[in-house]
Amino acid sequence: MKYERFEQLPVWQAGIELAAAVYALTEKPAFERRYSLRDQIERAAVSVSNNIAEGFERGTTQEVLTFLYIARGSAGEVRSMLCLLERLPMFHDLKSEISNLKSLPESIARQLRAWADSLQNCGIKGQRYLTDKTRQTDRARRERDEFLQHLEQIRQNGSKATAPV
C-alpha cells in the first residue's frame, strides 16, 4: 500500500497512541513536582510521531532514514525511562501500568527498523530526485525485468516438457 499522508502510517498512529498514553501516565499524582522527569518522558514520546511525520515529508530517502532512526531512538528513550520508573519506589503503585506501556515503544521500534531496512535496500533516492527521465528509466527497467522473468518461466516450462519421465 502506498501512503499519501503520514497520518495514514500505522507506525505514526502508534506513535500518537504512545504519546497520549505517556501524557495520561504523567497526569498521575506520582509525577507531581517531578517536573524534569515528566518533561523528559513527554518530550521523548512526542518526538516519536513528530520525527516519523518530518521524515515522511522530506524529499529524499536518506532524509527519511535519518528521521526514522531519530524516532526509533526516541522510542528507546521512552522505554528506558519506563524501565527507570518501574524501579523507583514513588512509582510503585503504577508498576503494572508502566510495565504494560513498555510494549508500545518496543513495537514502534520494530516497525521503524523494518521500514528503515526496506528503504535501505531499495534503489529509490526519493521524491526530490524523481524527474520524467528517472521515471522513464525506472519504467524501462521494470518492463525489462518482467520480460526476463517471463522468458525464464517459458524456459523452465519448456525444459519440463522435454525432460524424460
What does the model show?
There is one protein chain. The chain has 165 residues and is an all-alpha fold. The chain folds into two domains: 123 residues, 23S rRNA-intervening sequence (de novo design (two linked rop proteins)); 35 residues. The protein is built from six helices and no strands. Helix 1 packs antiparallel against helix 5 and helix 2 packs antiparallel against helix 3. The protein is elongated and about 75 Å long. The two termini are 44 Å apart. The mean pLDDT is 89.
Record keyword descriptors for this entry.
2 domains; mainly alpha; 165 residues; 75% helix; de novo design (two linked rop proteins); single chain
The CATH architecture classification of the largest domain is: Up-down Bundle
Radius of gyration over alpha carbons?
A: 23 Å
Q: Could you tell me the CATH topology label of the largest domain.
A: de novo design (two linked rop proteins)
Quantity of strands, as a count: 0
Share of helical residues: over 70%
Averaged pLDDT: 89
Count of discrete domains: 2
Q: Give the biggest beta sheet.
A: none
Given as residue ranges, the uncertain stretches (5+ residues, pLDDT < 50) are none
**What is the N-to-C succession of helices and strands?**
HHHHHH
Tell me the CATH superfamily of the largest domain: 23S rRNA-intervening sequence
Structural class, by secondary structure, is mainly alpha
The dominant shape is elongated
